[in-house]
Amino acid sequence: MSSPELRQTPLNALHLALGARMVPFAGYAMPVQYPTGILAEHLHTRAAAGLFDVSHMGQALLEGRDAARRLEALTPTDMATQPLGRVRYTQLLNETGGIIDDLMATRRPPGREGRERVFLVVNAARKAGDFAHIRRLLPDLTLQELDDRALIALQGPHAASVLALRWPKLAAMPFMTLASSAELGDERSDYLFSRSGYTGEDGFEISLPAGETEAFTRDLLGSPAVKPIGLGARDSLRLEAGLCLYGHDIDETTSPVEAGLLWSIPKRRRIDGGFLGAERILGEIAKGVSRRRVGLRPEGKAPAREGAEIVDEGDAVVGRVTSGGFGPSVGAPIAMGYVTAGRAAPGSALDLMVRGKKLAARVAAMPFHPHAYFRGP
Amino acid sequence: MSQLRYSKDHEYVRLEGEIGIVGISDHAQSQLGDVVFVELPKIGDKIAQGGEAAVVESVKAASEVYAPVSGEIVAVNDALENEPSLINEDSTGNGWLFRVKLANPAELDGLMDEAAYQEFLKTLP
Fold this sequence. Notes:
The complex is a heterodimer of chains A (377) and B (125).
Chain A: E1 7-8, H1 12-17, E2 21-25, E3 28-33, H2 38-47, E4 49-53, E5 58-64, H3 67-71, E6 87-93, E7 99-108, E8 116-122, H4 127-137, E9 142-145, E10 149-155, H5 159-164, E11 178-180, E12 192-194, E13 203-209, H6 213-221, E14 226-228, H7 231-240, H8 267-272, H9 278-287, E15 291-298, E16 309-311, E17 317-327, E18 332-340, E19 349-354, E20 357-364
Parallel strand pairs in A: 1-3, 4-14
Antiparallel strand pairs in A: 2-3, 4-10, 5-8, 5-9, 6-7, 7-8, 10-13, 11-12, 12-13, 15-18, 15-20, 16-17, 16-19, 17-18, 19-20
Helix pairs in contact in A: 2-7
Chain B: E1 4-6, E2 11-16, E3 19-24, H1 26-32, E4 35-39, E5 46-47, E6 52-58, E7 62-66, E8 71-76, H2 79-82, H3 86-89, E9 98-102, H4 114-122
Antiparallel strand pairs in B: 1-2, 2-3, 3-9, 4-6, 5-8, 6-7, 8-9
């Protein structure tokens, strides 16, 4: 599994040394699991701290005059009025309001000559297209790809205490904020800490120079609370947390309103629009949508996987499963998918077609496992 | 006699008189990872060699189990319903899937013995 055309993250040698099973993912060789297996990795992350290599994701700095306000033309978020260091989850939208990618955007302190800067983290499989899109629409701004940096996530209830041993101020950082190591009182290193993640747990995503990544990661793994976690458990953790996986639960045809991401569109943008795809989004806000992303709980123990048709009592197809599997912390199968709006209320009874047979299920509120984000000391 | 015979799809059959005990190989369970659900055939079902006979699901994916021999299902391993992880712990023992009354014992000649299966595994990517 070492195809020469696959790119490697700075932790490739460490993954192999830890016994990871490597798979191709978004053009990179990535660990899908370590010898302990997905179930144990999943449960360890919820109980202590899981370390994820997410260096395949795209990191970039958008820089230039009014960069924050200009980014609002491409995303339905509120950037211009955000304080520095506040992390926003948002989406790049196409002209018809479909989602090109979902991303994290954070205003950073001004760079040279007071030029505004916004730090972006985008999905690995989408980064080339995302960056081309941004450059095409904001040609007078500078988009600097941070290819020389890695990205590590440390997630779980012990994540903050492990990192606070070296950066004590980090323990008090609010959820969805970002700080550099210098801002945390460490002038010697060049790290960016974002209190965010993709597991539903408290935790951090850490951007750091590629060359320092292996030593930093080995140091973290020296803590008994920290174990390496692969993409397999990353997927089951985010599914339990009700979080979308790009290319599965959201894509260029789905709008953020259909996807249940309206919470990420602040009031000013809902009223004023002024972003690519606003016509559809504002229309959907006013008139409603014809389909919605919902959580699904199959009865019994059989999981329903991506692609399974969702049918009503008359056998009419009313939707499709976009992510599905077994939730290790829930202890039962869980899924999400799109259903016609009339079927989207929690408790609504539907059947999922699994291997030609009907599997009874109900629409369920998400998250399937409660979020445990940091809400203050 | 407890010798296992393997198919190229990584199922095994262990003969006890006229009955074959069927499951997935240790290699197969290790490739699948943590098993969370098993769909078994029903007693009385007729299965044909190479046909789908069961489904084993891990956290990540569902995998078909193909019948290594033809015959009629005479028992299924009910313990897997509450403890699918038996397949990971002991796939060739307590993690068996079903028992089948062989329709054509000569099919066993086309399967691999342990040594041949281990050689076969070395040829896989």
